[in-house]
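Ticket #4471: structure output looks truncated?

Reporter: J.K.
Steps to reproduce: submitted the chain below (316 residues) through the standard prediction queue, then opened the result file.
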Amino acid sequence: MKQNSNYEIFKRHPGNPILSVSDWPYKANSVFNAAAAEVDGKIILLARVEDFRGMSHLTLARSDDGINNWQINREPSLKPEPEKYPEELWGIEDPRITRLEEMNKWAICYTAYSKGGPLVSLAMTSDFKSFERLGPVMPPEDKDAALFPVKFNGLWAMLHRPVSMAAILGAHIWLSFSPNLKHWGGHQEIIQAREGGWWDANKIGLCAPPMQTKEGWLILYHGVRTTASGSIYRLGLALLDMENPAKVIRRTDEWIFGPKAHYEREGDVDDVVFPCGWLKRDNKVFMYYGAADSRICLATADFNELVDFVLEGPSL
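Returned output as attached by the reporter:
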């Protein structure tokens, strides 16, 4: 497959947006940046919902086909509780869901917005009705985190994006390890933002959780291009070694998806496509993304085409 800057391997669903605030059963400003998982034959989205104070919480929606007839919880599923968890003072945002078969639970990495800045928090659930918070697992400023579904040499692994307050050195994707999901170490930078005129120069971050393939772990990440009229969020792919996730095998030079449709270019934050969840059904990948920080949209791709596309990227 020839790489082409006009070619986007993900195809937008013609019914986009598939969810917006007009679908919500209670008052809200916007819904976007939803985590995704398949649970008991249904596709669930754990959506970020922003209220009219500007604070965010998370609410569950379910669908048989992941496209239509969404059943949305009539009240927030996971609300910030700053009285118990002061790191959630200004809301909770941008969840990513990973199934941990060894624990028979789902892990949810999310961003808690504290006085000291955003940080990574973790919650566990077995039914998406009740949630056990493990609290902060990374100090601020840190976000864009997700777990791998398996252990490496007996340790859990997490991808995340720490940033210095001055951001002098840019924002890159890091990998860390833990024996118990609470205490993390072995921190190492594995995917760097490029420099200069690249679409992913200076600031990148993980989007959806790693997806396992025969060739390695498929990574979907966003890059931020700063222009005279503001920032543009686009998406790229990388491939990590199956046994050693610190080893990057491939990385696409070109972006694979970016804001083009009107619902991606205009909203609370213009020119943003931001997926927090993707999943594979049969051989099709469903990518759920926030569009312009205002609505939830869907794009799909053939799984084999995605893998072939990243394999054509430069060897690293």
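Triage note (M.O.): checked the attachment and the full token line is present. The CA atoms of residues 10 and 301 lie 5 Å apart.
Status: closed, working as intended.
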